[in-house]
Structure formats: structure tokens, C-alpha cells
Amino acid sequence: MTFNEDSQLSGGKVKRRGRTAAIGGGGVGVAAIVVFLVAQFTGVDLSGLVGDGSGTTQIQQQDETVQPAEECRTGRDANQRVECRMEGAAESLDAYWTGEADSLGIAYTTPGFWLFDGSTDTGCGQASAATGPFYCPPDRSIYLDTAFYDDLQSRYGSSGGPLAQMYVVAHEWGHHVQQLQGTFADTDRSGTGASSGSVRVELQADCYAGAWVGSAATTRDASGETFFEPVTRAQIADALSAASAVGDDSIQERATGRVDPDSFTHGSSAQRQAWFTRGYERGATACDTFSVPGSQL
Predict the structure, then answer these.
(1) What distance in Å separates the CA atoms of residue 33 and residue 54, rounded to the nearest whole number?
(2) CB-CB contact of 72 with 81 (8 Å)
(3) Is residue 6 part of a domain?
(4) Residue 27 reports pLDDT greater than 50
(5) What is the dihedral sign for C-alpha 197, 192, 172, 121?
(6) pLDDT band at 294 (very low <50, low <70, confident <90, very high)
(7) In this structure, are residues 235 and 261 in contact, taking their beta carbons and an 8 Å threshold?
(8) What are phi and psi of 237, to 5 degrees?
(9) Which domain holds residue 157?
(10) What's the helix, strand, coil split of the chain in %, to 5?
(11) Where is this region: Disordered (predicted)?
(12) d(C-alpha 258, C-alpha 150), whole Å
């Protein structure tokens, strides 16, 4: 999507952490499991992030936090710089979900949103650029190394345009909405398969991302300006390319040359595109993936 150049960004939704440095040892346990689960967005093996099971792992010390939005004041800035684009997307998402919360029966709060370089410490354990973007329920925050967007194009085959980038953020924001709904607590995500609880959670987050896109051109900043210009077909195709690129079948075929639906955790490319489109066309209240028979997911 293209930001309305006259829209105003208030700043403060996105913060950045500098590159971290390893300072010691520790243990694994729950953090290892959580990091594995949240990293499934990219299908990358993250076992090396949390040690080798010998009781040794990295503990990171954070550099000073800075807010990248200090120079992100307008939609024009968001169109030109990826950090400003993240800030603009966050402000639009926050405005959208503030207005949409009542329809879902939730008390909405804003998630944390951290950009980082290289590696960072989270409430779900250590994360690195290889982890990919994820939402961490314990600290209710989104974590993203923007280097992932290069991988989205080069490794995952997405067109990698602005809306593809913001789809990633909107998907993770959807997980925050699910956290507020109690979805994570109420859903058994231990299983796998094309109609498993984990797939239903992920498809709903895709649907929520689509719902935001469907309303983005009418969502307004604090001064009453719309954040975005009207969405084009080409931009929707951009978002759908990202949804397709991170489908379980696409990732598996690239990695192994075969597809195993019984091991799906996020849904196929077709499922992810379909639920994004459903949200885009029908809104957040149409995103109940849990009452749908598996054959209709």
C-alpha cells in the first residue's frame, strides 16, 4: 500500500534495539520450546538459538533502546524508509483495532513492537535474524529484524513490496488480538496437520491481517487524514504473494522437494491466501476459523 503523503505519524509505536553481545551461559527448558513454536512462521530450524541441551545457552545484553520514529513524521517518510513504514503500519493497525475491538468483544491494548539487528532478548527467549518475525505472548510484543524482508524476496519468493512487508506485521498484530481474546490459552496448538489447532490460529491471524487491509484506506490518523491511499489490485497481489510464500507447502517443497500436510503448522499457501482474502472482503468478524470444518479451511 502507498501511504498518504500528508498523513501524520505521531511516533512511539515502534522501538529499536541495537545489536546485542553474548555475556554468559544459562539453561534452556521452556524458552527453547517457545522459541521453536514462534519461529515456525519461516519454517527455519532454530535449535541453535537456545543451546544444545547441555545446559549452555547465550544470554544477551541489550544496547541502548532508540526510537526509530524520531524522523518518521509523515506518510512520505513511511513510503521512503522501512523503519518509518513499520511505524506507519503500527499506527494504522492500532487505530483499526481500537475501533474494531468492540465487535470482537475484547478490551484492546497496544502491543509492544521491537525492531532489532542481529539478535535480541525476548520474553520467549533469545531470537536472531534467522528466527523471523514473531509475536511473543508472555511480553505481548512483536519482534522483527527488517533483514527478514530481504529473505522474503530472495528465499521465499514473495514480491517483497510494501504491502507484503506490512502483511507480516499485520499477521503478528493479529496474534496479539488473539492473545487478548484468550485464543492462545483456549487452543491446543501441540498438534500438526492441515486442520489442526495451530493451523486454525495462524489462518485466523491471516484473516485479521486481511481485515485491516480492507479498512486501511479509511483508517485515519490523529489529525483526521487517512493513513493510506486506496489499495490497488497490484498491492493486494503483493500481500497475497507473501501469504503464499510462507505457506507450509511452499516452505516444505523448497526445503525438501515434498509436501507433508500432516506436519502443517500454519496452513497451505492456498489456505493462507483464502483467509486473508476473506478478512479483506468481509472484515474481522468473519475470521472464525475454529467453527469451520477442516474440509472448508
Answers:
(1) 15
(2) yes
(3) no
(4) no
(5) positive
(6) very high
(7) no
(8) -60, -35
(9) 15-296
(10) 50, 15, 35
(11) 247-270
(12) 25
Q: Is the pLDDT of residue 265 over 50?
A: yes
Return d(Cα 59, Cα 72) in angstroms, integer.
32
* Digit-coded pLDDT (tens) for 78-118: 999 999 999 999 999 999 999 999 999 999 999 999 999 88
State CA 254 to chain mean position distance.
Answer: 21
pLDDT at 158: 60
Name 122's Cβ contacts closer than 8 Å, sequence gap at least 6.
Answer: 114, 136, 139, 141, 143
Angle between helices 233-245 and 269-282 (to 10 degrees): 140
SS3 8: strand
Residue 257, domain member (yes or no): yes
**Contact indicator for 135, 40 with CB cutoff of 8 Å:** no
Phi/psi at 228 (nearest 5 deg)? -125, 155
Task: List 220's β-bridge partners, or say none.
Answer: 226
Q: Residue 258 carries which side chain, given as an amino acid letter? A: R
pTM of the predicted model over 0.90 = no
Nearest to residue 287, comparing CAs of 216, 211, 198?
A: 211
Residue 249 falls inside a structural domain: yes
Report the length, in residues, of the chain: 297
Amino acid at 94: D
**Contact predicate 64/79, CB 8 Å:** no
Q: Which three cell numbers stand for residue 53?
A: 541441551
Maximum CA extent, the chain: 56
DSSP letter, residue 220 = B
Average pLDDT, the chain: 83
Look at the chain and report how many structural domains it folds into. 1
